[in-house]
Amino acid sequence: MDNVDLVLLASGEAVFSFPKEEQSILRRWNETKAFEQQLQRTKHLPEYVFYDGPPFATGLPHYGHILAGTIKDIVTRYQTATGHHVTRRFSWDCHGMPVEHEINVKLARSVWWVFRELFNKGLVYQGLKVMYYSTGCKTQLSNFEATLNTKVVSDPEVMGTNLVMSVDDDGCFTE
User: Fold this and answer.
1) Range of 128's domain?
2) Which of 29, 93, 139, 172 has a CA positioned 20 to 30 A from the CA of residue 5?
């Protein structure tokens, strides 16, 4: 048994093992369904909805996950301790493109109108910036995504963007 895990008396006798105690507590919580009981006992209290995530659907866990998880745990425990029924909602960071497409279909016209208003008031910044771009997905990539499995490939595709706009009868930009 490793002495790092133990509290030792002056005589050298081991009286406490942190890993064994933790396993004992977790076993007791699972047997008594402590988490489920806490939710049942607080269901009449004001609700606090905690949206957890989104974690990455790819990649291995690392220290950053532990840090973020600890902060999330503190928030939910604090809300429970201050008299709330905490509902936890989990999400994933892998549905961005389909959602963006649906939103674009439904809101594109009004977004272009807002953009035109901002542009006419001189509130749109114009400049150049180099961005990572996926020719396969036809979208820009985050710095994180751009560093995943980076490969140099020969692609005969030439892509350019030249947005030509005019204003339609409703005052909206059109391509």
Assistant:
1) 96-174
2) 29
